[in-house]
Design brief:
214 residues; Arc Repressor Mutant, subunit A; 10 helices; DNA binding; transcription regulation; Response regulator; Sig_transdc_resp-reg_C-effctor; phosphoprotein
Length: 214
């Protein structure tokens, strides 16, 4: 890709922000690096200036950095937005990717691996920590010999609505059943799909063709 000239770092911890600034300076040599220490400040930076790359933390003092991913990509369509976080769970990962993140790096990775993934941006390699890449592969490539999951018609209806973003309460209302009945169905769905969150259930719904990812 083209050279990285303008970079935005959204990070509230001073030591981590300094470390990211050093990494970006050494590896990408941009013309300018701006820092935002909150979601609100990050939104102001995104609104007021164009960037080639954004490194966004998720755990900000005034909310989730995930809320900045989509606005950044909408304004900078051909730029890269990389989440840099300590959260390695599926819900944060897939939520960030669905919002439009181009990469997901773990700040507690070995420094050499983090640096390698970050420097790979210029070579066009996807900036993904190795553990995150494995998690993605596990979601889209079932283990050999895994039994096919069979859901009832009602379970499929509920999973489809949940995967489209409806809450259990609104799903129950839409299907004309009680909230407790819907919750019981969700418990069974989680057990059948062997997942622990709505994000993982959504990925499974996409995988088995219940929901179109677009």
């Amino acid at each position: 890709m083209d050279a990285i000239r303008q970079v935005l770092i959204v990070e509230d911890l001073p030591d981590v922000a300094d470390w990211l600034h050093l990494q970006v300076t050494q590896l990408l040599a941009p013309q300018a690096i701006d820092l935002a220490v909150s979601r609100e400040e990050g939104q102001e930076k995104i609104t007021g200036k164009d960037y080639d790359l954004a490194l966004i933390d998720l755990g900000l003092p005034d909310g989730s950095g995930m809320d900045l991913v989509r606005p950044f990509k909408e304004k900078n369509r051909h730029s890269l937005c990389v989440v840099t976080t300590i959260f390695d769970d599926a819900e944060h990962l897939f939520g960030s990717l669905r919002a439009g993140a181009d990469g997901y790096l773990l700040k507690d990775d070995v420094e050499s691996e983090f640096s390698q993934q970050l420097s790979g941006i210029l070579a066009g390699r996807p900036p993904l920590s190795s553990s995150i890449a494995r998690k993605l592969l596990e979601q889209f490539h079932p283990i050999f010999g895994e039994k096919e999951v069979t859901l009832t018609r009602r379970e499929k209806d509920i999973l489809t609505l949940i995967a489209k973003g409806l809450s259990v309460k609104h799903t129950a209302e839409k299907l004309g059943i009680s909230h407790y009945t819907a919750a019981s169905y969700m418990k069974d769905i989680y057990a059948k799909l062997q997942v622990n969150s709505r994000a993982e259930a959504t990925l499974k719904a996409i995988h088995i063709g219940l929901v179109n990812p677009t």
